[in-house]
Every structure is written in structure tokens, then in C-alpha cells.
Amino acid sequence: xxxxxxxxxxxxxxxxxxxxxxxxxxxxxxxxxxxxxxxxxxxxxxxxxxxxxxxxxxxxxxxxxxxxxxxxxxxxxxxxxxxxxxxxxxxxxxxxxxxxxxxxxxxxxxxxxxxxxxxxxxxxxxxxxxxxxxxxxxxxxxxxxxxxxxxxxxxxxxxxxxxxxxxxxxxxxxxxxxxxxxxxxxxxxxxxxxxxxxxxxxxxxxxxxxxxxxxxxxxxxxxxxxxxxxxxxxxxxxxxxxxxxxxxxxxxxxxxxxxxxxxxxxxxxxxxxx
Length: 274
Ligand SMILES: [Fe+2]
Prior knowledge:
about 270 residues, mainly alpha, Helix Hairpins, disordered N terminus, binds fe (ii) ion, metal-binding
């Protein structure tokens, strides 16, 4: 992992690392509020762990999303459930370090599974909090609105597909709007648990948690009502920023002049369709 190469870490990558509180090996990027770079995370031998994660603060108060999502849910969800994913990811990293030190990787399958589940849970929730705002709701504008119309036909069609995707999650999981860079399109995914059915290399723009811990205290088993209320707190400005950052990282779109910009795109040598 590079540590001080700004060219290798475009702004959106830096912002993402900050949003998930990744403190591993990125101290040199810490122009703002990155946590201390793992220096205070020590193993039994007082050697610093190469990487660790921290729970990010919410960008608003616990009661800020009421009446749509009440304070009790937000506090328990953030300080309890999200913290548990952070702790689980760090525990898995520590176990991996111990395996490496011992040069003994027996049982690594379970550790890798724990890391995938908990790190995905951490990232999903970090985006989920920022996708919401007290003055949210309504519809997107600008380039995001155009992209939604291009990919789904209309905002209403997008919202209907996203809502049904969330409602139909089996047991626990997420609905997510992704930017898919190969096709340069938006797609809606349905994740089971925190990490199953993930879309490789696609960038999550909008995430909706439909684990029962996200709504049961307020809505009991009425998941559909929770989803309807959640649309009132969607922060479309945040979603638009994520979309624009993902597009910038991809490089030129179909409409752009590839001859002039092809070298900037990591996808320039790949087929532009799936
Ligand atoms: Fe959750």
C-alpha cells in the first residue's frame, strides 16, 4: 500500500479512507482528521499493527433523522452494531498478524471470512451514515439525475426498483446503488449479510441497511414502512459527490474523446460493455 504518493491516491480515494477511519499506513495522507496511524494499536509484543480501523463519528446528532429514524435506533446502530464490525475487523487483522508471526496459517479460512464480513460491515455502515441527512429527501439533480434517467429510464423507475430490491432482501442485507465502471452505468445490487453477492469493482453510491437492527425498534416487522420513511432522509448531495468521484476515477465516458484521455483511465484497455 502506498503511503505518500498523491498520484496513486486520488482525492476520492483519500476521502473514502478517511470516511472508514482506515489508519493503516496512510498517516502521510492525514491532512485532516485521519486517526493516528496504528501507532496506538499494539499486539502482545508492542509491535504496531500494520493497519486498523476506527469508528467514524456520525455527521449529525443521533436524533437528527427523527421522525423517520429515531434516536434510539441510531445510537444503538452506530455505537453498538457498527462498533462491533470495526472491532471484528481489527480482531481478524490481529489474528492474521499472529499467524504470520508464527508462520502457521491453519484456520485461516475462518479468519478471512471474519475479515470479509466485518470489514464489509464497517464500510457499508460508514457510507450509509453519510448517505443520510436531516434535510434529505426529494430527488437528485445534475449529472447524477441524468445518469439515473439514462440507466433506469426515470427517477420513479429507479426508486421502484431500489425499493423492491430492499424489500425483497432475504433475512438480512442491503440494497445498494453502484456505479459500474466497465459499462459506465448505474446498477442496483442486493447484498446478503454484509458481503455476499458483492459487485466486484463497482463503487457503492447509495446504501440501505435492511438488517432488522436498522428498523425493528421503531417499525417492528414493517420493513416496507421503514424503507418509505428512509427515502425522506437520503442525502442526494452526498450520493452525487460519490458518483462524480467514481466517474473521475474511471476516466472518460463513452461520450468523451478517448483519444485524448485514454491514458488517464484504468479501464481504457478493457471492453466498455458487459
Ligand atoms: Fe446495520
